[in-house]
Amino acid sequence: GRDRGISARAEWEREEMCHLLVADRERGLERFKSLCNGAIESFRISTLELLINIANEQPDDLSPEIRLWRQFFEGKKHRLSGDWETAIRVWQTLSVERAAFTSDLEQTWAINLAILHKDMGEWSRAIECLEESLKVLEGKGDERCLITILNNQGYLYKDREHWQKAEADFQRAVAISRKVGDERGLAVSLKNLGLLYKDNMKWDEALEHI
């Protein structure tokens, strides 16, 4: 009963996504991203692969953006499967078309690539990924997307005990969050700043932010 109902709903969602990818590209892309992220969060690699295959069946001239996201999720599939080298290769191949990235793809791609480099012990390369992405997003004038990049970069610096660089990134993320009115971004940035002060035993400053 319940499992059959869940399966039927999942099949219906995939069919709707397939239809939308042709009939309403923007909504189709959002549904594709949502279903892929849901599969990733619940670690359903086979479902992620199925969604990618469905998107692969769509003509490439429908939307370059769909093709780029499809390739991103292909890399994510390999990352989740533990094939880090293939994931790196897929994402680096994708970078050739970086000029066509939307801001959200730029942000997502850079953070995932940086985390993978970090997990492989390549800290300098991880930082480079985020620094490059900051420059790209600054060039696009998309301040909101800078917040997540800065928080991730600050955490990398924090983990390496580069306290001043970490503080500068978190402070900048706080300032941008306030400027653009991003309450969630502000909460995350303030929390990160508080944890940084706590790690440095600056208790008064920590209490002000956490």
Q: Can you tell me about this structure?
A:
The chain is mainly α. The protein is 82% helix and 0% strand. The chain has helices at residues 2-23, 25-41, 45-56, 64-80, 84-94, 103-119, 123-140, 143-159, 163-180, 183-199, 203-209. The termini are far apart. The model has no long low-confidence stretch (mean pLDDT 88).
Give a brief outline of the structure.
The chain is mainly alpha-helical.
List keywords for this structure.
globular; single chain; about 210 residues; mainly alpha; 11 helices
Strand content: under 5%
- Net shape: globular
Low-confidence stretches: none
* First-residue to last-residue Cα separation: 45 Å
Q: How large is the radius of gyration?
A: 19 Å
Mean of residue pLDDT values = 88
Q: Count the strands? A: 0
- Structural class based on helices, strands and sheet pairing: mainly alpha
Percentage of residues in helical conformation: over 70%
The main pleated sheet reads as: none
| Oligomeric state of this protein | single chain
The helix count comes to 11
